[in-house]
Design brief:
transmembrane; membrane; globular; PMP3; transmembrane helix; 57 residues
């Protein structure tokens, strides 16, 4: 795991939408994460971790 991924992981735990924005920018992933965080915070964290650690096609 490189330093960027480690920092994004820490940010994803503390501020999930910020981590998704830094990793993917504006888009569907950010919208989904914002909705998940507004409904319940834990699904937002899980989604952010998934976005940060999944492989890009």
């Amino acid at each position: 795991m490189d330093t960027d991924t480690l920092l994004l992981t820490l940010i994803a735990i503390l501020l999930p939408p910020v981590a998704v924005f830094l990793h993917r920018g504006l888009g569907r992933d950010l919208l989904v994460n914002l909705l998940a965080c507004l409904l319940f915070f834990v699904p937002g964290i899980l989604h952010a971790l998934w976005v940060v650690h999944r492989r890009s096609p």
